[in-house]
Amino acid sequence: MYSRPLVRFACLTLLCLFATSPVDAAQLYVGATSTDITPKLPVSLTGQMRTRIAKTVESPVTANVLVLESRDGDKSLEHVVFVSCDLVCIRGGIHEKVREKLKDQLPGLSLQKVIMNATHTHTAPTMIEGRYTLPKTGVTQPAEFVEFAAQKIADAIQKAWNERQPGQVGWGLGHAVIAQNRRALYEGGWAKMYGSTSTKDFRGIEGYEDHTMEVLCFWNDKDELIATAVNIACPAQAVEGRSTVNADFWHPVREALKKKYGDQLTVLGWAGAAGDQVPRPMYRKAAEARMMQLRNLTLLEELSRRIVAGWEEAYAGAVQEKHADALLKHEVRTIELPLQTVSEADHERISKEIKAYADDPSKVWIKNWKQRVLDRYDEQQAGTSRPYSMELHTLRLGDIAIATNDFELFTDFGTQMKSRSPALQTFVIQLCGPGSYVPNERAVRGGSYSAIIESNLVGPAGGQVLTEETLKSINAQFKK
Q1: What angle do CA 207, 209, 212 make, to 5 degrees?
Q2: What is the pLDDT of residue 9?
Q3: Strands 225-232 and 266-271, bridge-based pairing
Q4: CA–CA gap between residue 51 and residue 436 (Å, rounded)
Q5: SS (H, E, C) 74-137
Q6: Three-state SS for 174?
Q7: How many CA atoms lie within 13 A of 203 on its CB side?
Q8: How far apart are alpha carbons 402 and 429 in whole angstroms?
Q9: Cα dist. 404→84, 180, 250, 331, 333 in Å?
Q10: I need a surface site. Which of 1, 71, 244, 310 has the fewest CB within 10 A?
């Protein structure tokens, strides 16, 4: 029989051991900043099948940087850099250029841990040469923009890295009706993106909409709110058809939050799995327009109003539980996803269709879009096709998980990840790469843009592999 003093001593010893373990001793460090990446005008805009040249700026496009690091004393345990960009996708070599410019500039920074995502505004500069037929002079060229933006982003990362300081993090859940499934379903099972909902054969909206909002908040050692990440399962394309530079709804959201919480606040927009979503109504359009008119709000202001209200709902919870020692884990690995097979029927159809665009310079986007499918078919036939290689990032930050993907990923895949994840909240960040659509099986059966072979480098099977690999990594991070 052990004496009470001995038992008490043993318990105190164990408590001391646990209290001084690296996990509990870790201090979170935070750095954040924002930079304007709006180039010299005029500039070509991307996100549509037609050429658009912007001569004015309605709102600047920005890159918003968040640096997180956990330390045990002077020892760095883990770190990550998030860069949220008002771009349509992360392509044109911009991610590689940013990493290249940071090489050997910041001791202790692993370039592999720099994550970039796009908010998917369709009124941001073009990043791929040859995407559209453009004048050779008098317009900022895509390669020029990529070089300009990459330098600005690299400089911003250096600033945030050098200014990181002890901080705290909190997480919360809010709600905002932003996402609207944009695929109309008709009698016979076929579907159409942005299809009419007033025709006799309309039968419903094809899929689910996620109206939750995952929110992270970060405070410095003066208890000032310096950064927030807002994860909404919807792309920022409310004003996608305009011919002006515009950051879409994220600009008024940032302005509203800064007005209340201070100009030091950096706001990162993270689009969740939302390949089948849009921030505009598919039906009840007249009633929606009337209510905005009665409130004296534009569409962007209305969406901002909803997002800010949902953010405040999440913030009210996050501010009650601030963590200076939240466990930070970050895994980066390359996964391979099977390509969607190009069928004989698709090859035959596209071979006929592409002839109509051969000699029309205004149709270069569509021509190239279809030609890429024919090129893929040739690779299939030659046996030289390779799986899609994707850099997957998964993180644990305290009770929450974060996972990235390259695509416009249909919402069903994000729902699976969130539902099956062991984390209290799971943030899914899409468009961390070139951004082709990854549809579910239901959408492929329905057809139409976003769920046809021209839109899908990776199909439903690849989307499921991505889901399983993501969950495998998250589960490993939450094992005790």
Answers
A1: 160
A2: 40
A3: parallel
A4: 20
A5: CEEEEEEEEEEECCCCCCCCHHHHHHHHHCCCCCCCCHHHEEEEECCCCCEECCCCCCCCCCCC
A6: strand
A7: 12
A8: 7
A9: 12, 22, 20, 11, 11
A10: 1
224 vs 167: CA distance, rounded Å: 9
pTM for the model: 0.94
CA distance 254 to 268: 9
Sheet holding 202-205, edge to edge: 191-193, 183-186, 202-205
Cα separation of 124 and 479, whole Å? 41
5-14, 255-264, 284-293, 446-455: range with lowest mean pLDDT: 5-14
Which pLDDT band, with edges at 50, 70 and 90, does 25 fall under? low
**pLDDT at position 15 over 90:** no
CA distance 398 to 170: 9
Is the sign of the CA dihedral 456, 462, 466, 471 positive or negative?
positive
323 secondary structure, DSSP code: B
CA distance 460 to 92: 26
Residue ranges per structural domain of the chain: 27-335+388-478, 340-382
Residue 429 identity (one-letter amino acid): I
Do 67 and 160 contact (CB within 8 A), yes or no? yes
SS3 label, residue 364? helix
Rounded to 5 degrees, what angle do the CA atoms 237, 238, 239 make? 95
394 closest CA partner among 336, 329, 335: 329
